[in-house]
């Protein structure tokens, strides 16, 4: 693991600091865009497979070019990424194993070949597995792009910038096609957009992005930058454009916040970028309105009580005799816990659905009307109806 | 290094013996539990868990300050389990799919682990070196104590597997039925998941984070091709895993600069490849052969059917016809006619063919499913 960390001038933001953040932001955006489509197409793990299996491509490319940032190496390594996808699909097509097993078989094998290639040529290759897997953003500004002796800025910024521009260009050109083929493959082929070409196009873009980014943030953390912003955004919206914007936003935020966290702890920049992504995801996972964990749990509890309420009202509707409608009878007959029957009773009373006289429960007119509608719902079984009913009748929800 | 030299070294050299034994045991337990992971469609769980174990190792080191393998593995186990249950929580409680959940846990935990590892490296106490062997695995660092631990875990695992065999098997193939029979499916599920995580954590030191998933999957995927019985599959997977370990260690010991983990994975990959191609029931080779045989058989029967169409218009079915009149029908060749003759369905006489009684009956029964299935 690289021990040296760039020694940072404490007083002002130095030039390398700005450059590092710029690279981090560009990498984050370039990763977030294909990431959204990978998550939506349920292929998130392909990014993991690609990020590992490009290793032999990088090694062979390095033998040829001797330069980690050369475009030829990036293309060669990206080609290995596409080969991975093809191999996975080939194995899957034989039907001998499931898709996830196919992924799990292909990339460790390719990765192993890469590791062995490096180990066997350790003397000629200034490339170690650590660097490929983990990357080190702090070193990125040292690799300058020199054009006829002029310093044009860090090389990786140029590489990732070009990749980002290509990705954005393709996104704007093929947005409609990507959208259709992501959500409805059948429709997309019926309209004449080949899902196959779009699929391999997306895979190629992802591969190129992964290869371009591994140098800065490392192969595994590329996966985080691809999946986490998209998944976080997916918990907040179901609109593709908003999802793209949000995930770009999360990516940029984590890039900058992660950099300063790393600065604070004097630790790996890519590691802390991922940690920030993780914290952001965790917060959204817990607190997202309507799709977050807490609101899902709350809704489940609400629905449980409301279902009990409907059961209870139906029970009252069925029985005219008083002993069936006695408060104490509830516990034994419907077999509810005491707390539950109490909360159901309270809810029903709050909503004016029942009246209690001498411990005898009876339906009010409103309660009767609701029960009849509920019965109709149970017979027709149309889901959207019950929510409308609840909105119409409930003053207080469960 | 010749084979006899290798065997001599195996018995005399402490390190080689320990590593060989260790990788063999590891391969066996991974194969055993990997079979369940593969059949439960949790193949990539291994990948996610092995990455998710990293922060556990770092935190265990931060808290205790020791590099005792058992303490670190305990940390790895805890964070691996947290990862597993978070994956499950994500897929059941939100609309994120399992691939996204796996990818998230894998990369986020690993990134956090990296942050901690680099943080630890900056700490003043100097005994932190060597934590990164869990990243890439160094079989060479295995000592007898590690192997003992592996053997104990394998023993416990085998015992539990045999004890709950019926339950595991049922849960695997029909979870709903298991629940209706009154088994505590949640408990069985957690038990098997726990052991899978345990096996992954054990393997980290030997083959490392990245290659651990292959250790879990490859032997099981290979074993799956040879059998349809769970017991035999688990047994075969254990054998394949152990052999990959032993062979991989031998190959990497025979050359310089060849790390053990990747070689083991490649050996396991060869096992998978061979199984994919050569397994008699499902293998690609035999499937292709069967496919060709069926196609030839179909051609033959089509020819016979055509001949039957001609022959039945004649009073004497054995009335000879010129081969020429078959020309309208493209499906025959000299060999296929000879094959028909061998089956005694037709008789050939130079340019003439005539149908036999046997051939007539066979053609009549051609569309009778009952007769064909017998």
Features:
heterodimer, A: 398 residues, ABC transporter involved in vitamin B12 uptake, BtuC, 2 domains, two-stranded antiparallel ribbon, two-stranded antiparallel sheet, 16 helices, B: 374 residues, mainly alpha, 3-stranded antiparallel beta sheet, 3 strands, 74% helix
Report on this model:
The complex is a heterodimer of chains A (398) and B (374). With 398 residues, chain A is mainly alpha-helical. Chain A folds into 2 domains: 15-291, ABC transporter involved in vitamin B12 uptake, BtuC; 294-393, Arc Repressor Mutant, subunit A. Chain A has helices spanning 15-40, 44-65, 71-94, 99-120, 129-134, 155-183, 185-190, 195-217, 219-236, 240-265, 269-287, 293-318, 327-335, 338-350, 365-380, 383-393, and strands at 144-147, 150-154, 354-357, 360-363. Chain A has a two-stranded antiparallel sheet with strand order 1-2. In chain A, helix 1 (15-40) crosses helix 2, helix 2 (44-65) packs across helix 3 (71-94) and helix 8 (195-217) crosses helix 9 (219-236). The longest helix of chain A is centred in the middle third of the chain and has 29 residues, at 155-183. Chain A is elongated, with a radius of gyration of 29 Å. With 374 residues, chain B is mainly α. Chain B folds into 2 domains: 3-282, ABC transporter involved in vitamin B12 uptake, BtuC, CATH 1.10.3470.10; 289-373, Orthogonal Bundle (Arc Repressor Mutant, subunit A). In chain B, 74% of the residues lie in helices and 3% in strands. Chain B has helices at residues 3-12, 14-39, 45-64, 69-93, 98-121, 133-136, 144-163, 165-173, 175-180, 185-224, 230-254, 260-278, 284-311, 334-342, 357-364, 369-373; strands spanning 321-322, 346-349, 352-355. Chain B has a 3-stranded antiparallel beta sheet. In chain B, strand 2 (346-349) and strand 3 (352-355) form a beta hairpin. In chain B, helix 3 (45-64) packs parallel to helix 5 (98-121) and helix 13 (284-311) crosses helix 15. The longest helix of chain B is centred in the middle third of the chain and has 40 residues, at 185-224. Chain B is elongated and about 105 Å long. At the A-B interface, helix 2, helix 4, helix 5, helix 9 and helix 11 of A face helix 3, helix 4, helix 5, helix 10 and helix 12 of B.
